[in-house]
Every structure is written in C-alpha cells, then in structure tokens.
Amino acid sequence: MNMSKLRDIAKDMGVDPGKMNKTELIRAIQRAEGYTECFATKNINQCEHLDCLWRGDCIKSLSA
C-alpha cells in the first residue's frame, strides 16, 4: 500500500501521520484499532489475522 493511502487511513482513524515512516504509521494505525502493533515483526509466523489489511506488506517486509 502506498504512503498516500496509508496517510488517508491514518487520518480517518484519528492518527496524525506526521513524518512517520511506513512501519511506524501502520503500527500507529494498529494501535488505534486496538490491535497488537505487530507489523513487520517476526510474529507473522504465528499471525492468525489472515484478513489483515497489512498482511501482504508485512510478509514482503520480512523477506526483504
């Protein structure tokens, strides 16, 4: 997902994106949603949220 779309989602969630990078912004959105801030952590191996909006980017970030 591109940063423009992420910033829009963040603003809709009441999160000020400021100068956050992609990882920081997604984790801030996860926190605002009440979820664990797990984006781009090694927890992907035990992640049960198959419908997570960030899953594809998360998996890509770990293989990079």
**End-to-end separation:** 16 Å
Helix content: 40-55%
Tally of contiguous helical segments? 3
- Sheet with the most strands, sense and barrel status: none
**Care to count the β-strands?**
0
- Give the amount of beta strand, in percent: under 5%
Explain what this protein looks like in three dimensions.
This protein has 64 residues and is mainly α. 48% of the residues lie in helices and 0% in strands. It has three helices and no strands. Helix 1 (3-12) packs parallel to helix 2 (22-33). The protein starts with a helix and ends with a helix.
Could you give the topology of this structure?
Layout: H1 3-12, H2 22-33, H3 55-63
Helix pairs in contact: 1-2
TL;DR?
The chain has 64 residues and is mainly α.
Keywords:
64 residues, mainly alpha, 0% strand
